[in-house]
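Backbone geometry:
***
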Amino acid sequence: MTSNSKRAPLQNAPWLDIARKEVGQKEVVGHEDTPRILAYHATTTLKATDDETPWCSSFVNWCLKQAGIKGTDSAAAKSWVHWGMPSGPVPGAITVICSSKATDRSFSTSGAHVGFLIEETAIHYKLLGGNQGNSVKESTFAKANWSLLGRRWPGNVHQG
């Protein structure tokens, strides 16, 4: 993984630069909760009060809000499927995937997950997102186990 300092800012996807600065935020084991994850949750109508509630969509909403863009305001990953405009596989695209295996459903009860696309190849999606291994990080999702529900882009921001 390339360090954040070596990556050029994306002029057309400022939310991705905001997300990169959050890498390392993680859930606290036990009864304590991470204040930053609670801040992510505060950007949704669910307004969950613990860091155990699935928070991938809350993270995407928070990053977009920091960039001055209105998200879905929903804590549901699938809420992004029809948001904004359709997008190609470009860095920063809000990408919604769904697990085809019950063992991969740890992200949410629906099996859906949302994050920012870093890279897409013939065999995987690489996403930067929240609630990936209980933290903000880049993770690779094999296309054999995850199906694409949609890639979206803010309707008022020029893509690429």
Confidence is low (pLDDT under 50) at residues 1-9. The longest helix spans residues 56-66. The chain is about 15% helix and 25% strand. The beta strands are 85-86, 94-99, 112-120, 124-132, 135-142, 146-153.
